[in-house]
Amino acid sequence: MHKRRLLKFGSVGPPGPSRWRNGKWSAPQRESFVNDHGYRMIYVPESPASNSRGYVLEHRHLMTKHLGRELFEGENVHHINGIRTDNRFDNLELWVSSQPSGQRPADLVVWAKAILDRYQHLVEDPNGSER
After folding, report:
1. Inter-residue contact 87 to 59 (CB < 8 Å)
2. Which of 29, 33, 37, 77 is most buried when burial is the number of CB atoms within 10 A of its CB?
3. Does 3 map to a domain?
4. Average pLDDT of the chain, as a whole number
5. Residue 92 forms beta bridges with which residues?
């Protein structure tokens, strides 16, 4: 495919879902769409989480922006009301599905300390009350 584009147009074009139209590479055909699983995909080619066409799941992208970091392995974004296209931040929750690697007490303590270090700031206010 790349060789054919190179021969036909003189370049392979930009990454992502662009098309050769009227003598130039055009923008993606759509900024967002609902995928086969019912989740909204948005065009954000600069995101590290984007797929090969430059699209990323909107609910994961919103949580990433809110946290100020990429999601860790084992983190999921849950829709509270179950509607997969309802991506209001009030409807999104961060869920963690990690498990300790062993059952020895020493392993569990190390795992628990790592979980506390990673997520305690999301649960407690600076004055000590829970959110």
Report:
1. yes
2. 77
3. yes
4. 83
5. 79
Find tokens 């409807």 and name the residue: 91
Give the pLDDT confidence of 2-40 residue by residue, as tens digits. 787 778 777 776 665 566 666 665 666 678 899 999 999
Residue 59 lies inside a defined structural domain of this protein:
no
Number of domains in the chain: 1
Q: Hey, how many other C-beta atoms are within 10 angstroms of the C-beta on 62? A: 16
For CA atoms 44, 48, 52, 58, give the dihedral sign: negative
At residue 110 the predicted structure's pLDDT band, cuts being 50, 70 and 90, is confident
Whether residue 83 contacts residue 91, with contact meaning beta carbons closer than 8 Å, is answered with: yes
Q: Residue 4: inside a domain, yes or no?
A: yes
Q: Which range of residues forms the domain containing residue 22?
A: 1-29
